[in-house]
Amino acid sequence: MEDNSICIPGERLGSSEQYQSGKRTYVRHGFVFASIAGDIKKESDKSGNLPIIHVQSIHTKQHIPEIGGIVICKMTQLTSAFAKCKIISVQGSCHTAAFRGIIRKEDVRATNRDKVEIYKSFRPGDIVVARVLSLGDALCYLLSTAENELGVVVALSENGTAMIPLAHDQMQCPITLLKQFRKVARPQSKHISFPENSKSALTNESTVS
Q: Which of 55, 84, 102, 146 is the most buried (most CB within 10 A)?
């Protein structure tokens, strides 16, 4: 298990033969478990004993996505059935925790759900405003863009230029005039005023599979 990774309550962190139980952890049946959600930290013991493993609470550092709340995410991977993303901002606070999201095909739009095509709704690297539906697997949230105000707010064309929205389902490069399909969000400043340092996520690589 890597240092600085994220854990959830009750998650097994390692064997008690490998680590000493530190703050916000407990030992049961020979294993160390996390008692809260947070960042996993490991420290060497000055006495030369086993390293100490503990959990640092993330509640004091950053917001956690809540059901019904708005998040800003970056699309990372697309399939015909869903789109995967990384959550980069919660309640206007830049997020460094490893929270992931999934937008299923049926949660992209509120109408004509049977006609939705993921590849015509998002592209890897797009910045998207979404609503949290529920917690899926560990640290992965089910998200929705099935509202007019939700969807793609920032997208780059093939030449790296920020595209402008033309309609609810199209964006255009202002230089090449090339048009691309997207699930475009109705502009709302309260949703897209994410921190400046989170905008750097646009420059990171993403993949389609």
A: 55
Please report how many Cα atoms fall inside a 13 Å half-sphere around the Cα of residue 52, on the Cβ side.
Answer: 12
pLDDT tens digits along 32-75: 988 877 888 898 888 878 999 988 876 555 577 888 989 899 99
Q: List strands edge to edge, sheet with 31-34.
A: 12-15, 31-34, 25-28
Query: Whole-angstrom Cα distance, residue 33 to residue 19?
Result: 11
Question: Within 13 Å, how many C-alpha atoms sit on residue 123's CB side?
Answer: 17
Of 16, 68, 58, 12, the residue nearest 37 (C-alpha): 58
Task: Dig out the tokens for 190 from the structure.
Answer: 């309260």
User: How far is it, in rounded angstroms, from Cα 198 to Cα 97?
Assistant: 12
Residue 72, CA distances (Å) to 75, 150, 171, 179 in order: 10, 10, 19, 24
Torsion-angle region of residue 112: left (phi > 0), alpha (psi -120 to 50) or beta? left
Buried b (16+ CB within 10 A) or exposed e, 101-117: bbbbbebbbeeeeeebe
Mean pLDDT of 84-91: 87
Q: What is the pLDDT of residues 189-198, one digit of tens each?
A: 544 444 444 4
- Report the 10 Å Cβ neighbour count for 18: 14
